[in-house]
């Protein structure tokens, strides 16, 4: 049941990420999926998620959408670094283009991220306050 629910959430996130109108919702869900997916799901989805996040960072989407994508990227890189094969693939094939994307950010995005004024903190807080969090796994076991 949980794996089918997880697959459904991944599908919803992917669908939302394809449309400019729903990309913010998609990237918020993606950020939660990155943080809470079991290791095997994370390994299967990581490269696809990296590409999606990079596309979002390069887009002309609103600043808040890009900021949430960057927070998802932070977790993607942090967790992928704990898995040797995935870490090698990310380092060799994806880090250079990610750095280029980050260097191309609008100037107003960088200072907000440095001061942790990201909307992702609000999302995490709401998730804990409402008790609506769905947990499929824990990255702590890595």
TrEMBL record:
Organism name: Scyliorhinus torazame
Annotated protein name in UniProt: Pre-rRNA-processing protein RIX1 N-terminal domain-containing protein
Keywords for the protein's UniProt record, in alphabetical order: Nucleus
Domain Pre-rRNA-processing protein RIX1 N-terminal: 18-109
Annotated InterPro entries: RIX1_N
Superkingdom per UniProt: Eukaryota
Family the UniProt entry places it in: Belongs to the RIX1/PELP1 family.
One BP annotation, GO: rRNA processing
CC annotations in GO: nucleus
Protein localization: Nucleus
Residues that span the membrane, as ranges: none
Pfam families: RIX1
């Amino acid at each position: 049941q949980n794996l089918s629910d997880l697959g459904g959430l991944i599908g919803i996130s992917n669908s939302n990420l394809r449309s400019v109108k729903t990309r913010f919702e998609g990237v918020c869900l993606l950020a939660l999926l990155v943080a809470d997916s079991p290791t095997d799901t994370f390994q299967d989805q990581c490269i696809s998620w990296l590409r999606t996040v990079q596309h979002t960072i390069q887009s002309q989407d609103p600043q808040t959408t890009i900021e949430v994508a960057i927070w998802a990227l932070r977790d993607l890189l942090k967790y992928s670094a704990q898995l040797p094969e995935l870490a090698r693939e990310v380092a060799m094939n994806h880090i250079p283009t990610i750095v280029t994307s980050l260097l191309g950010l609008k100037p107003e995005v960088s200072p907000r991220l440095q001061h942790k004024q990201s909307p992702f903190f609000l999302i995490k807080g709401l998730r804990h306050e409402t008790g609506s969090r769905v947990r499929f796994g824990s990255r702590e076991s890595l």
